[in-house]
Amino acid sequence: MTDVGPFGLSVRDQALEADVQAGLAAVEEGLLEATKSEVPFITEAAQHLVRAGGKRFRPLLVMLSAQFGDRYAPGIVPSAVVVELTHLATLYHDDVMDEAAVRRGVASANARWGNSVAVLTGDFLFARASHILADLGPEAVRVQAEAFERLVTGQILETAGPQDGRDPVEHYLDVLGGKTGSLVAVSCRFGAMMSGADDTVVDVLTQYGERLGVAFQLADDVLDIASDSHESGKTPGTDLREGIPTLPVLRLRERAARLGLADDIALCELLDSDLTDDDRHAEALRLLRAHPALEQARRDTVRYAQDARSALAPLPECAAKTALVELSDAVVHRAG
């Protein structure tokens, strides 16, 4: 029984474990090959985040979803490389938009080489992903194009904010469906599709991935408030300090508007103040950790994770299904 992928997922079936480990190793080789250029500087910049590591969450889902068809089909590993390259490209762009200094424990590309290089490196990775896609056939190109459109739309909607009269929580969940859910869904879709699984199985796994992706991001929202740096591996309250409206904050504002309680309003005012001040930031974290809004956000996370698990019901019982169920349970555990 070995831990693979994020959350320390334990694969209890030796054959499945061997397949997943071999697949992820092949993906790692594919990522390094896909990020090579005749220009050494481009190779260095493109491999910067590849070599920094990461959970490889999306390739893991490709491998597990491929178990429902021919798990050795030739398109599986390349499709996993495509989704990870796409994910990595978005990280380069996100770090420019967020002015991030660190990514995966190393200096971000924009901090090291400047915004222009970071943006162009992200574009280079998108180009390499497209090149691989072209060999996987027109259906794969269409699926990836639709997912990427949703991803970019989610990012734009986040930047624009909710329209007048739109519920901010609903808007945020739509944003996450695009920004995170779309690429996680396509990871499951590619794994099943490339393995030749039945269309019904492909659809089931796509729905699972969409819901799991949103649950995964909501769990991060909860962790940003609830965990300490030892538990989460990152500084707590990072999103809070940067003024990013994650779900616990949105639930707080929703409650303040609905009930008009003085303490809720005061906390909202504190969140609207300059949280680069360490004392204010610490007080905001302390109050949010004790606030019912955090528990509401936990319940939202659990609901999405349970919906992901429920989506798997039509699939036959097997080791891969058990592993996918455990992934959804692990998301709930993270948020707990």
Automatic annotation (TrEMBL):
Keyword Ubl conjugation: no
Molecular-function annotations in GO: heptaprenyl diphosphate synthase activity; metal ion binding
GO biological process annotation, one example: isoprenoid biosynthetic process
Enzyme class label: transferase
InterPro entries recorded: Isoprenoid_synthase_dom_sf, Polyprenyl_synt, Polyprenyl_synt_CS
SUPFAM superfamilies: Terpenoid synthases (SSF48576)
Keywords: Magnesium, Metal-binding, Transferase
Cofactor: Mg(2+)
Superkingdom in the source lineage: Bacteria
EC number: 2.5.1.30
Pfam families, A to Z: polyprenyl_synt
PANTHER family: ALL TRANS-POLYPRENYL-DIPHOSPHATE SYNTHASE PDSS1 (PTHR12001:SF69), GERANYLGERANYL PYROPHOSPHATE SYNTHASE (PTHR12001)
Family of the protein in this entry: Belongs to the FPP/GGPP synthase family.
UniProt-recorded name of the protein: Heptaprenyl diphosphate synthase component 2
